[in-house]
Specification:
- The complex is a heterodimer of chains A (about 1200) and B (about 325).
- With about 1200 residues, chain A is α/β, with parallel strands linked by helices.
- Chain A contains 46 helices and 35 strands.
- Chain A is globular, with a radius of gyration of 32 Å.
- Chain B has about 325 residues and is of the alpha/beta class.
- In chain B, about 40% of the residues lie in helices and about 15% in strands.
- In chain B, strand 5, helix 4 and strand 6 form a beta-alpha-beta unit.
- In chain B, helix 4 packs parallel to helix 5, helix 7 packs parallel to helix 8 and helix 8 packs across helix 10.
- Chain B is globular and about 80 Å long.
- Classes of the chains: A alpha/beta (about 1200), B alpha/beta (about 325).
- At the A-B interface, helix 2, helix 16, strand 17, helix 23 and helix 44 of A face helix 2 of B.
């Protein structure tokens, strides 16, 4: 019997790839990252490949780098692989052509994902792999987790047999992240298919000085073409070779595959051709339709390149008359999508009397259900099937979409369960564990799939679990569940949790109430559904149980045994034993007390669960529909639909054609995530502004205003807490309010941590205290409304270079979905306070592009005049160049506008033109206001200038208002993948500002090491502690001499941070600000985020400095802004899990690296101290001229 | 090492009556070896704190799982590593290594928080090679609903349970904050303790005048602190004739060691002086003791041990007087 295990598609592929590789050159990218991470972890643990060596896994600086290393390793005779997706695959394309052109056996495993076009999507479709179809790589598509495992082996075996490299791909997320039970291939299976002779032949082709060859020549027109054709026989041999390997696999395992497979009626007239996971939904639909007497079928293409024309034709029933080909990719402008074209050509070539149509489906992981499949087959049965169509959406613009029959369903087999939870409560982990328990401890098949929203805080997760005696082919979300669990009671008010429950279903609630109160606490809509569907409801106060056993908020350990007890898949005792064993396996390596407390929670769970009898539908609570009436039309009509989880229903016409969305939408979301919110005590406040400057979500703000302003609000103003302003920097009599946004605050507590002022009588009472949100929201809401109604301060009346002054400016970055306590967002918010109404942002892909630009809402906002940051994200690797391009365009537009102004001066008026040409300093508020007024006057005048130049100037007038270009991204971008471009931009002399939000790790993709990761830190790809020191990016930038460089840490010195940003913006040239950004990947209590920053600086780990280029002779551009270290580095390192882990995994290495890390700090501090004495001045034209003249002196 | 210093403590034969009590010095094998070289008769390893060893994995888990399962892009933020060297593991390894590498007896110290924890960890420490246990029993009795009898009763129950569950001698490190110490000491011995260590010094809170936070910092003992344990060693010596007594706190010289022995201590423990001056200082303390013994013509430490205990002192009541008047009278302003 083969060994069975529950794994996801990524692991299924990696389990084979790692055993068949000498070298894995990798780079993280969603959704392929887990493959590389697993390979790295296995190698770090010493797991050998099939030949007894531990594969060398190396993280590169980009996918381009990974491909280069892959190519090199292959060229030198290694068996090498990599794992990637989407943009990563695109970055590999040049090398893919080379590797194939050189007939080099290789495999790249791809979790196929959408390419960024009008928007980034981390989700699955085939646009990446289709972009690689011209590279000369064979392409083998797995459509299930088992196939990921099997096809990984087929790819590795066949590439060695044929010398044609293989792209092994499967659907991102739907397959890469689906957990399913599979039969594992053992080493003998691998040895049987991967023939020693083929391996030896490959190794023999490796470059060696003993048998030198020249590979990679440049060829002239005389031979290039012929040489390109010389490889043809190798491609011709691939289909048969793949089928032979498939047959060999079938002999060993019983799992038979064909290059192209048919399923359905033998006399089918209508057939759908598809590739990937959609085959599962299609198969279910076809079975249901055939059972109903329809003559339909489905063809699944497994080998896509070289395209197996003969196999396709052989697979088609002779009765077929109409074929619909489904492509999970869009090629705008093409006569048809790729698979459609291939099939059509095959049919045409064979002279078959068949109509071939084609449709797009599933882009960006759009669901593809049996209902969609039935719609395609129904369309094929019509009088005139549409030649091209889409399915799964409503296209009310070009009318391409197919109508679907809402009533169409396929018979459900087995049991279907859905679990609603918050990302933070462990629901996903518990459900994965349940899948494994069922799949690995019973004879049942099991499948788990997990849906997340895009927020990093307060994220809702929905876990879909199927199990039953038959293999599970369903490749779509559960629509009618037998069991529904809601792990957070509050979700019942936020989303239609019970919609998915079938009549008579069992419902399990985590309810923090006594048993007899649960029914009454349910929202009225939920009560109604429960009665209408005759649901059986059970409840458990999981948090109370978890708390009692010392597990805090880990409610999943309580919910999981309750699920098993209710679903009946196993006898309760057996289930409890298995859940405990699962806990022991998962946490046994993390400490005994963890296991014991989880076991205690499991033991108590069932006793704490009780049934909730259905009662009268009388609840006074209703589901929340929070969208304020004042929301703009787009938010009401489009954004709100997405927020309600019904975005799938939006038609094509509802969405922008070019990906441009309005900003200032996060303010309408009102997520109410916080259990506690900060409440201000004006009697103690010292106006320092620290709470506001550190707030990651702009949820606590400060305003100064006059008594008249307050009076103008009437009763609302009277009720608004306020105080007299301290100091003389604002007009006498000014008032001040610090106000929380009660529905937007995440309750992270960073503001309270930094608040320096306390009550003199009760030390624990600070100016702001975290108090229960439930008790204070109602009171604070009108306060916040009144606060918003107060006028924003006149920007020219307040100093921007102080903490307090900067915090009196309106933030135009608010309420992001970043992690609660995020260390990055305070910098972005501060930037918008300083430059928000005059800034253009180029944002590298990463955390900041997700919390900044992932729909449904954006935190980038506007002021009352509608001005605010203009933001765009291009890619991960090109952000510096992208920002430079923006700057060049703005400069070009400005130059042209100025030129036109001069040309048109007689028509416009000399005085106005002269005033406009006298451009203000970006940071001179009064002058900026004046310039905007002048541009307004210009716009009023220009319509009278009836010339083409006048129209051109109208279109360019905005460019006369100075703008600040900010290039923003994380360390993965700046230090690694984007460094080449960043370096180039720094060298350009262009007036751009670069802000690096340095978390010292790839945060967005889950904590992989970057070149910014410090020595001694544990991270993915550095699981035994990073052995090398952190790259000194600031020092590299300083080498140019004319680049402004600052290293800042808001929690350590807010003023230095504010001034650095102002100086960077003012510097007429490139500037680079490296901002220390605390992150959950550091393993710290995020409420103390700023205290960690303070410690980082106090230990010398993160010195604060500014390098301010100057043309002055004898200038000392480098100033060290932090004091010499006052605490040992160990004190800082011990407080962060990223460092502390190593002492628990490898104490000896930890000791060694700790010493080296302290030496790094000491050495760098010594070096920086010397830099403070270095004289350097930026050569200017004048200075150069002087010098030239001087040399000409006799 | 001269035989003149041979001592017995908790039924163990020691080469000298100087014992290194729990400190960072007894927390590393390197310094333990240096202490042994310098002549200490035994070492007491740093306390295993149940609360700490149980809390550490939970805290690490919480930190390492932060953000896990929240977004599709990142299943978790830390690599899947084996934490094979948690505090408990490291502590037990220290006990094992010390027991195997040192020739002097290794005493393990334990601070539990739950009845089950005391017993479980006591066994683990013994299984790891500890020749004896020192129970570091103390919590702040701030609950007004618990009487002193309640608190003491709970301690006695624990002592009895631990003593029943291990087959090595157990010493109890007492707090001086007991209303009737002599009575309680007798009860502890009755519960099974083979020895008493006088006294525990505790982390006492301090206030940070800048932040107004309450801070905790252990300060090294000062010489004058010797007096309190000295008194109680002298009082208890004749009362508990078959119980090992250890004096700790304020031992900074060979003279202090001598005083402890004179009062009746079987061993004298030093922490602060060794931390201040390094492990090698143990040799100095013993040399000073020997010099004093030479001066007094003592043949060995057994001869002097307890010679000024309460029952043997020329003025036994001196140990029980508050002595204000003499102190004041000797004050010369």
């Amino acid at each position: 019997m083969p060994q069975s295990r529950c794994v996801d598609g990524n692991e299924a592929a990696a389990l084979v790839a790692h055993r068949l590789s000498d070298v894995c050159a990798i780079y993280p990218i969603t959704p392929a990252s887990p493959m590389g991470e697993l390979a790295d972890a296995w190698s770090a643990a010493g797991r050998p490949n099939l030949w007894g060596s531990v594969p060398r896994v190396i993280e590169m600086q980009s996918e381009a780098g990974a491909a280069g290393a892959l190519h090199g390793a292959l060229t030198a005779g290694s068996l090498a692989t990599t794992f990637t997706a989407s943009q990563g695959l695109l970055l590999m394309l040049p090398n893919l052509y080379k590797i194939a052109g050189e007939l080099t056996p290789a495999v790249v495993h791809v979790a196929a994902r959408a390419l960024a076009t009008h928007a980034l999507s981390i989700f699955g479709d085939h646009s990446d792999v289709m972009a690689a179809r011209g590279t000369g790589w064979a392409m083998l598509c797995a459509s299930s987790v088992q196939e990921c495992h099997d096809f990984a082996l087929l790819s590795h075996a066949t590439t060695l047999r044929t010398r044609v490299p293989f792209l092994h791909f499967f659907d991102g997320f739907r397959t890469s992240h689906e957990v399913a039970r599979i039969d594992l291939l053992d080493d003998d299976d691998l040895r049987a298919l991967v023939r020693d002779d083929d391996v030896l032949a490959h190794r023999a082709r490796g470059l060696t000085a003993e048998r030198p060859v020249l590979r990679g020549t440049a060829q002239n027109p005389d031979v290039f073409f012929q040489a390109r054709e010389a490889a043809n026989p190798f491609y011709d041999a691939v289909p048969d070779a793949v089928q032979a390997a498939m047959d060999q696999l079938a002999e060993r395992t019983g799992r038979a595959y064909r290059l192209v497979e048919y399923h359905g009626a033998q006399d089918a007239e209508r057939v759908v051709v598809v590739m990937g996971s959609a085959a599962g939904a299609l198969t279910e639909a076809v079975d249901a339709l055939v059972a109903a007497g329809e003559r339909v079928g489905v063809v699944t293409v497994r080998l896509y390149r070289p395209f197996p024309t003969a196999a396709l034709l052989a697979a088609l029933p002779g009765t077929v008359r109409r074929i619909a080909v489904l492509d999970r990719v869009k090629e705008p402008g093409a006569p048809a999508e790729p698979l459609h074209l291939d099939v059509a050509l095959a049919v045409l070539g064979a002279g078959l009397p068949v109509t071939v149509t084609g449709g797009r489906y599933g882009l960006g992981s759009k669901e593809f259900t049996p209902r969609d499949a039935a719609a395609v087959l129904s369309e094929l049965g019509g009088d005139e099937p549409r030649p091209r169509f889409t399915v799964g959406i409503v296209d009310d613009v070009t009318g391409l979409s197919l109508d679907r029959d809402p009533a169409f369903t396929v018979p459900a087999t087995g049991t279907q369960a859905v679990f609603f939870g918050l990302g933070s409560d462990g629901t996903v982990g518990a459900t994965k564990s349940s899948v494994k328990i069922i799949g690995e401890s019973t004879d049942l098949h099991a499948q788990g799939y997990f849906v997340y929203d895009s927020k990093k805080s307060g994220s809702v997760t929905v876990s879909h679990l199927r199990f039953g005696p038959d293999p599970i082919r369903s490749s779509y979300l559960i629509e009618a569940a037998d069991f529904v669990a809601c792990h957070q009671f509050s979700l019942l008010e936020r989303m239609p949790v019970l919609d998915v429950a079938r009549p008579g279903a069992t419902v399990l609630l985590n309810a923090p109430f006594p048993a007899d109160q649960v029914w009454g606490r349910l929202p009225r809509e939920v009560q109604q559904q429960a009665v209408d569907k005759d649901l059986r409801i059970y409840a458990v106060d999981a948090r109370a149980v978890a708390r009692d056993v010392g597990l805090g908020n880990r409610i999943n350990t309580v919910m999981q045994p309750c699920f098993f007890a209710l679903c009946g898949v196993l006898p309760a005792d057996e289930a409890i034993t298995l859940v405990k064993a699962s806990v022991a396996k998962t946490y046994g390596r993390r400490g005994r007390s963890v296991v014991e407390r989880n076991h205690a929670a499991i033991d108590r769970a069932l006793d704490a669960m009780h049934e909730v009898p259905l009662g009268p539908v009388t609840s006074g609570t209703t589901m929340r529909h929070d969208l304020p009436a004042a929301a703009p039309a787009f938010v009401r009509d489009v954004t709100a639909v997405m927020l309600e989880g019904r975005g799938d229903l939006l038609p094509v016409s509802a969405l922008p054609v070019d990906g441009s969305f309005p900003t200032a939408t996060a303010r309408w979301e009102k997520r109410q995530l916080a259990d506690e919110i900060p409440i201000w005590d004006p009697s103690l406040c010292i106006d320092c502004g620290k709470c506001a400057i550190v707030c990651p979500h702009a949820a606590i703000r400060m305003k100064a205003y006059s008594a008249d302003d307050l009076a103008a609000l009437g009763a609302a103003g009277e009720a608004l807490p306020h105080k007299a302003v301290v100091g003389r920097d604002l007009p006498v009599g000014s008032l001040l309010t610090v106000q929380v946004a009660p529905d937007d605050c995440t309750g992270c507590g960073v503001c309270v941590d930094v608040c320096p002022a306390r009550s003199k009588t009760v030390a624990k009472h600070k100016v702001i205290d975290l108090l229960p949100a439930a008790e204070h929201r109602d009171e604070e809401r009108p306060h916040y409304e009144a606060f918003l109604a107060l006028p924003e301060i006149d920007r020219s009346l307040v100093r921007h270079d102080t903490v307090k002054g900067s915090q009196l400016l309106q933030p135009l970055f608010e309420f992001s979905g970043a992690c609660s306590g995020c260390g990055e967002t305070p910098y972005l918010k501060l930037l918008t306070q300083l430059f928000g109404d005059r800034m253009v942002v180029a944002n590298a892909t990463g955390c900041s592009s997700i919390y900044g630009g992932n729909l449904p809402t954006t935190p980038w906002s506007v002021d009352a005049a509608g001005r605010g940051p203009a933001w765009s994200n291009s890619l991960f690797e090109d952000n510096a160049e992208f920002g430079l391009g923006m700057r060049l365009a703005l400069d070009s537009r400005r130059a042209e506008a100025r030129s036109l102004l001069s040309d048109l001066a007689p028509a416009i008026g000399g005085e106005l033109v002269a005033a406009l040409l006298d451009e203000p300093d970006l940071q001179d508020e009064a002058a900026m206001t004046r310039q905007r007024e002048l541009v307004g006057r210009l716009r009023a005048v220009l319509p009278r200038v009836q010339t083409p130049d006048g129209e051109r100037l109208t279109s360019l007038a905005d460019a006369l208002i100075p703008s600040s270009t900010w290039i923003v991204g994380g360390d993965g971008w700046a230090y690694d993948i984007g460094f080449g471009g960043l370096d180039h931009v720094l060298s350009s002399g262009a007036n751009v500002n670069i802000l690096v939000l340095d978390t010292e790790v790839y945060s967005n993709t889950g904590g992989q090491a970057s070149k910014s990761t410090p020595r001694g830190a544990t991270a993915k790809f550095a699981s035994n502690g990073k052995g090398t020191r952190k790259k000194d990016l600031g020092l590299l930038a300083q080498a140019y001499g004319d680049v402004y460089v600052a290293q800042i840490a808001l929690g350590a010195n807010e003023t230095q941070a504010v001034r650095s940003l102002l100086e960077a913006a003012a510097h007429d040239g490139p500037s680079l600000v490296i901002a220390y950004s605390t992150c959950i990947a550091h393993g710290i209590e995020m409420s103390t985020s700023m205290s960690h920053q303070k410690q980082a600086v106090a230990s010398g780990y993160w010195p604060l400095y500014r390098y301010h280029p100057s043309p002055e002779s004898g200038a000392h551009p480098f100033s060290l802004d932090s004091k010499a270290p006052t605490i040992p580095l160990a004190e800082f390192m011990e407080s962060e899990t990223r460092f502390a882990v190593l002492a628990r995994t490898d104490p000896a290495r930890a000791s060694e690296l700790d010493l080296l890390a302290q030496a790094d700090v000491d050495e760098r501090w010594h070096y920086y101290e010397q830099l403070g004495g270095v004289e350097r001045s930026v050569p200017t034209q004048d200075a150069a001229g002087d010098h030239v003249e001087g040399t000409e002196e006799p | 090492m001269t035989d003149r210093l041979r001592s017995r403590y908790l039924g163990l034969d020691l080469a000298s009556p100087l014992v290194a009590s729990p400190s960072p010095l007894t927390g590393s094998l390197d310094s333990l070896l240096r202490l042994e070289d310098a002549g200490v008769g035994a070492v007491v390893l740093p306390s295993l704190f149940e609360e700490e060893v149980e809390g550490e994995p939970l805290l690490l888990l919480e930190r390492m799982e932060a953000g896990a399962g929240v977004v599709g892009e990142a299943a978790e933020y830390f690599p899947d590593v084996d934490l094979d060297h948690l505090g408990l593991d490291r502590h037990l390894v220290l006990v094992q290594e010390a027991a195997s590498r040192l020739s002097v007896p290794v005493v393990a110290s334990l601070n539990g928080t739950s009845p089950g924890g005391w017993v479980r960890y006591a066994r683990e420490l013994v299984d790891a090679g500890a020749r004896a246990l020192e129970l570091n029993m103390y919590d702040v009795a701030a609950d007004p609903a618990r009487s002193s009898a309640d608190v003491e009763g709970a301690y006695l129950t624990l002592v009895a349970e631990v003593c029943r569950s291990v087959d090595v001698p157990v010493a109890v490190k007492l707090s001086p904050y007991v209303t009737s110490l002599a009575h309680f000491a007798r009860e502890v011995v009755g519960a099974g303790a083979a020895g008493l260590v006088l006294f525990n010094r505790f982390y006492q809170p301090d206030l940070d005048l800048v932040t107004l936070d309450v801070t905790a910092r252990l300060e090294l003992s000062r010489r004058g602190e010797l007096r309190l344990p000295l008194r109680w060693i002298a009082i208890l010596r004749p009362q508990l004739t078959s119980t090992s007594l250890a004096l700790t706190s304020g031992v900074a010289s060979g003279a202090d060691v001598a005083k402890g022995l004179l009062a009746g201590a079987d061993v004298v423990m030093s922490t602060s002086e060794l931390l201040r001056s390094g492990p090698g200082r143990a040799r100095g303390l013993l040399d000073e003791l020997l010099a004093w013994m030479d001066e007094g013509e003592y043949a060995d430490v057994d001869e002097l041990r307890g010679s000024v205990a309460q029952h043997a002192a020329s003025d036994p009541t001196a140990y029980e007087r508050a002595q204000y008047q003499r102190v004041l009278a000797s004050w010369h302003g």
